[in-house]
Specification:
The protein is of the alpha/beta class. Helices cover 41% and strands 17% of the residues. The protein has helices spanning 10-31, 42-51, 53-57, 70-73, 76-87, 109-114, 125-134, 151-164, 178-186, 200-206, 212-218, 229-244, 265-274, 304-308, 323-327, 359-367; strands spanning 36-41, 62-68, 91-95, 118-121, 139-144, 169-173, 175-176, 195-198, 222-224, 251-253, 275-282, 286-295. Helix 2 (42-51) runs parallel beside helix 16 (359-367).
């Protein structure tokens, strides 16, 4: 039996779901309304939609998607800056696949590519370094998008470029760290959340204890969990248990097969070596203090901002897209009047419809009602 098979056992799943439904009734009686939980991570959003859990449980509890899709939270101004790099003569922009189609204020990298910009998709930053080495006549600007999970690979690409003595490799980092965004959610008086499902991958890097403040300062029960359906149902069961209990809320590690108390110390050391914490803007949130990672001054020669400083016009926010509110858990994709009408995967208006981890794309694929 494969280790994951027991997380996919339908009998176990049904039994646990019945327990969740029973506990959700008790939680609703206690709160006077159905409990509202947020899955912070985009991969969880997709897993929940794919398993049909949101629709299945919607009479009993509400599941809201959060700010854990890195492409989705990249703000308009940052996408406009990526476009500006692509318009510079002699510059090739390298990025992960999803970023290419994300609309900025006026255009996207995909449209810029159609107009002649050199935009290339790489599976890893190391491939972008290799490309830079093989094409010394071009400047490679790699777009560093993502959370604590992808930033170490970008940091190592800088180390690799330095070791190779490359003068034509730099990174435009819009990397973000997750805990400050959770603090922003927890301190928002408009938020009516009763618990959080915390990301599995990010937690593998930063560790369980990095989240203790969520329970201590904001009183939110929280569970780190994996991506199998039973992982998620088990997390819901744990959140509901915490909600109906009179004990203080806790941050529970339900993903012990991957996540440690202290996280991945080597990855954390890599991040500390290359990055310093910065105040950065998140779509829907605005600037969140201490929520970004920028290259340390000693790596300035690899910082695309410092090397090129392209001119970027003030962002223009497209009308109608509700991605910002969606990323704060205030609504679901179905509450956006553009969903599945003006905004579809083939004609996305916002990043939440573009990204493979975006809530709108997940709803469109798995939860669309015709
Ligand atoms: Fe934005 Fe489209 Fe989602 Fe509406 S459906 S919030 S326009 S991405």
């Amino acid at each position: 039996m494969h280790i994951l098979d027991r997380f996919r056992d339908p009998e176990l799943g049904r039994a646990l779901l019945e327990k969740v439904i029973a506990l959700a009734d008790r939680a609703r009686d206690k709160l006077g309304r159905p409990p509202v939980f947020m899955e912070v991570c985009g991969t969880h959003t997709v897993a929940i939609s794919k398993a049909g859990l949101r629709s299945l449980l919607e009479e009993k509890l509400k599941l809201r998607s959060g700010p854990g899709c890195p492409v989705c939270v990249t703000d308009y101004g940052d996408i406009d800056a990526m476009v500006a790099f692509g318009r510079l003569p002699g510059v090739t922009v390298g990025t992960f696949g999803d970023m290419v189609r994300v609309p900025g204020s006026r255009t996207s990298l995909e449209r810029e590519k159609a107009r002649g910009a050199d935009v290339r998709v790489f599976y890893s930053p190391a491939d972008a370094v290799k490309w830079a080495k093989e094409n010394p006549e071009r400047q490679m600007v790699f777009l560093g998008v993502g959370f604590e999970t992808t930033a170490p690979a970008v940091a190592l690409s800088v180390a690799q470029a330095k070791a190779l003595g490359l003068k034509n490799y730099s990174v435009f980092t819009v990397h973000k760290v997750v805990p400050p965004a959770l603090a922003a959610l927890g301190s928002d008086p408009e938020m009516k959340l009763d618990g959080l499902i915390l990301p599995g991958h990010v937690s593998a890097i930063i560790g369980r204890r990095a989240y203790d403040f969520i329970a201590e300062e904001y009183g939110l029960p929280s569970v780190i969990t994996g991506f199998e359906t039973l992982d998620i149902v088990d997390a819901l069961y744990n959140l509901l248990q915490q909600l109906i209990s009179d004990d203080p809320p806790r941050v529970v590690n339900g993903y012990t097969r991957v996540v440690r108390e202290e996280g991945n110390v080597r990855a954390q050391e890599t991040l500390d070596r290359f990055f310093q914490i910065a105040d950065v803007s998140w779509r829907g949130f605005g600037t969140i203090p201490g929520s970004g990672m920028e290259l340390k001054p000693e790596y300035r020669e690899f910082d695309a901002r410092a090397r090129f400083a392209p001119e970027v016009a003030a962002p223009r926010i497209p009308q109608g897209c509700r991605c910002g509110d969606l990323l704060k858990g205030k609504l679901t994709p179905r509450d956006c009047r553009l969903f599945a009408t003006a905004c579809t995967p083939s004609h996305p208006v916002g990043p939440c419809m573009v990204s493979s981890e975006g809530a709108c794309a997940a709803f469109y694929q798995y939860e669309r009602r015709t």
